[in-house]
Design brief:
The chain has 16 helices and 19 strands. By secondary structure, the chain is an alpha/beta fold. The strands form 6 sheets. Strands 3-2-1-4-19 form a 5-stranded parallel β-sheet, sandwiched between helices. Helix 11 links the parallel strand 8 and strand 9. Helix 2 runs parallel beside helix 4, helix 2 crosses helix 13 and helix 6 crosses helix 7. The longest helix is centred in the last third of the chain and has 31 residues.
Length: 489
């Protein structure tokens, strides 16, 4: 499986705009399209519409449009991050695209106003998943940012804490930290826990500096052996990764087809990968356990109580066996969901969609959502099948020769290219429908166009934004690998 952070953004976009309005002879340049979110999906949609002649305004909540490529993909994937971000820059730096940073729709701009008053022919939602799913506990949230942190702010801290102007939250990782979750994102988190503990202990007890890039590449065990020391000598107690299912159930590998043989091989590969991670980074993996409650003594958070689980077929069954883990630092890593935008309808965690058009947001005829997963029919299914086959092939080829297949950026990039090609194929396939549908929408009047341009100009002026490339150059953060003089990351 492709890394979830990447998958979240390197995903297939399904755009199906069906506006039942009178046709006029308008041209693309008479239509303005708003896109909320500028990362991979948003930038892909923006550039394809812009190349057709549509005027596109991309609103992004951050300074930079890169989403989790910048703030959620661990910094050791630096070369991969840079290549993907350069691709986004090439797409958004287009004369028909206006990029406006630091705008939160629903806060800085009322969503209904954006749809009804600005003059856009369509509004396309391409915002990513930034809200962490909450742990099913109550009292632990009294200790948020001290004893409890969630994956998204934790990774943001890890990626940016070295910057001189960093003003975000800071976290003090403790011995025996517990990570709750499964999948590659959770493995990234427990790797960070172990690396941060070991780097700090080596410096404190041995006056040895080890950078995160070297430590991630070589692993905790090799670095300790190199410096002839141990976790015990350094006073480091390993962290825990607690997963509700078995190791082979963790979504690290996927079968190239649905035959029992390929499914069994993928499950075995996932199990092997977990074992390699544990060996290399020296954390504890605790399978088949779910958190039951907090342990609080004298007002202090001191641990978690877990229930052991059994797996019967595909079902997860609770047992009457319990155990405790004493810890003072917990990281929730059980998934992310998009931030809710005030003014949009939701059905639980998800946007409420038109039952007659699964890509049209309920209650709005000209508001559409582009997803962050590969879905669809026709040739996109063959692209998906190809992607699964290539993912399985890549894992199979690299597993025996690499300690950690997912530290190999070339292997990841190969998978990303497959998914990107699927994304582009589908958008191109649907572009005729998109174009004809938008052209059916009433064109913007001259007065409304002047107002729209005035509004976007005012937003840009307030943010001191004038040129996309200049803005990117001025706001791209200092890279740790550059500070350390490290090449090839």
């Amino acid at each position: 499986m492709i890394h979830p952070i990447i998958l979240s953004y390197v995903c297939i976009v399904k755009l199906l705009i069906q506006l039942n309005m009178q046709v006029d002879n308008s041209q693309p340049q008479n239509h303005y399209i708003a896109i909320i979110g500028g990362s991979v999906s948003g930038s892909e949609a923006a550039t394809m519409l812009a190349q057709k002649g549509f005027k596109v305004v991309v609103f992004d909540q951050n300074e930079l449009p890169y989403g989790k490529l910048e703030d959620g993909l661990p910094m050791w994937h630096a070369s991969l991050r840079d290549r993907q971000e350069e691709a986004i820059d090439d797409k958004l730096d287009h004369p028909n695209i206006t990029y406006i940073p630091l705008v939160q729709i629903g806060k800085d701009i009322n969503f209904s106003d954006l749809v009804e008053d600005w003059g856009f022919s369509a509004v396309i939602l391409a915002n990513g998943a930034w809200n962490d799913r909450q742990l099913p506990l109550n009292r632990i949230h009294d200790y948020l940012d001290t004893n409890l942190v969630y994956q998204n702010p934790f990774l943001y801290w890890f990626n940016h804490k070295h910057e001189a102007n960093y003003t975000g939250k800071r976290y003090q990782i403790q011995n025996k930290s517990v990570v709750l979750g499964g999948g590659l994102a959770s493995i990234d988190v427990i790797k960070i826990v172990m690396m941060e503990l070991v780097m700090a202990a080596l410096k404190k007890h041995k006056n040895i500096d080890v950078d995160v890039f070297t430590l991630e590449k070589k692993g905790v065990r090799e670095i300790l052996e190199l410096h002839q020391t141990t976790l015990e000598e350094l006073g480091v107690e390993p962290g825990y990764l607690v997963y509700r299912r078995a190791a082979e159930d963790m979504p690290l590998a996927q079968p190239s087809d649905d035959t029992p043989e390929k499914i069994a091989k993928a499950r075995e590969t996932s199990k092997n990968l977990i074992e390699k991670y544990v060996e290399k980074f020296m954390f504890h993996f605790v399978p088949q356990a779910v958190v039951e409650e907090e342990i609080i003594e004298n007002g202090q958070f001191v641990g978690l109580k877990f229930r052991k689980m059994e797996i019967q077929g595909s079902k997860l069954m609770a047992t009457d066996d319990f155990f405790d883990i004493q810890t003072t630092f917990v990281i929730g890593s059980i998934g992310s969901i998009p931030k809710k935008i005030e003014g949009l309808p939701y059905d639980g965690e998800k946007l409420k969609m038109n039952p007659e058009n699964e890509f049209n947001v309920f209650g709005y005829e000209n508001v559409f959502a582009i997803g962050n997963a590969i879905t669809g029919k026709g040739n996109i299914m063959s692209s998906k099948k190809h992607g699964k086959e290539m993912t399985a092939k890549i894992i199979s080829e690299h597993l025996d020769e690499l300690d950690d297949v997912y530290t190999n950026d070339e292997a990841i990039l190969e998978k990303i290219n497959i998914y990107n090609k699927a994304l582009q194929d589908l958008i191109q396939e649907e572009l005729a429908s998109i174009e004809s549908s938008i052209l059916k929408h009433q064109i913007i009047s001259e007065n409304d166009e002047v107002c729209l341009l005035d509004k976007t100009a005012k937003l840009s002026e307030d943010r001191q934004f004038s040129n996309y490339r200049r803005w990117i150059a001025e706001h791209k953060p200092t890279r740790l690998e550059e500070m350390l003089g490290i090449k090839g990351h």
